[in-house]
Design goal:
The protein is α+β, with helices and mostly antiparallel strands and about 280 residues long. The protein is about 50% helix and about 15% strand. It has two domains: about 160 residues; about 100 residues, Rieske [2Fe-2S] iron-sulphur domain (Rieske Iron-sulfur Protein), CATH 2.102.10. Helix 2 packs across helix 5, helix 3 runs antiparallel to helix 4 and helix 3 packs antiparallel against helix 6.
Amino acid sequence: MKNLDPDSWVRAMRFLDPLADRGQRLVGAGIRRGGAPAATAKNLLNGPWLGHPVHPALTDLPIGAWIGAALLDLAGEERAADLLMAAGCAAGAAAAASGIADWQDSYGHERRMGALHGILNLSALAILTGAVALRASGRRPAARPLGRLGLGLALGAAYFGGELVFRQGTQVNRNAFTQGPSDWTPAVAESEVREGAMTTCQVGGAQVVLTRIGGRVCAAASVCPHAGGPLSEGRLEGGVVTCPWHGSKFDLITGRVLWGPATTPIPTYEARGGTAGMIEVRAR
């Protein structure tokens, strides 16, 4: 049954790689040209303010609206169907923008799968927008098959969206199953934890980064929740660490996300000076 595995189909679509490369370069160039406002818009679309990615929540709106429009058509409620289909296209544009913002920070097979997901969704949006235009001009009989085609493409795209999350682990919190020790556990020598520098160690089942901020010892997860980047290799400034992979920023004292694409905070741990000159750590 290997040939029926959609994941293997996508791996065989080599044309997706140059398309994805070109697409990411274009999006990246647009963000750079847009300066701070464009970077802020991308950060909002990623969803640190929401606590998880914006894109999954937005995708429910257009698909629900388009399915509702199809049912209203069957019931003969044409004007209501017109309105719902147009609303779905507006929501689809917002969902597309948030999806592109997330996809911009992907790579490898995840990027390839995301490119196919995006191509199908953008095609569906274009077709359904055309159907809305036909409906507005009174040509509903011509619009209906276009609406069905667009809805079919959108549902196909949703399937590959599920592949991205549940098989590729896209945008899944990399610290979701990480737990620090429940009891005070020796981590590193106090002399190794210095102001303005980061030290990493394994404490129980958690990989922890330690530093001093204003003389206070702080301990937090050293794995970026967005894609697993090593925070210990990032830049530390004023208690804020920047992930070296995609630029997410975290407050090392509270774990709070200050800048995306990460959307979930990093776990923080209690730390104290222990016996024999060791720093001890435990879960909060």
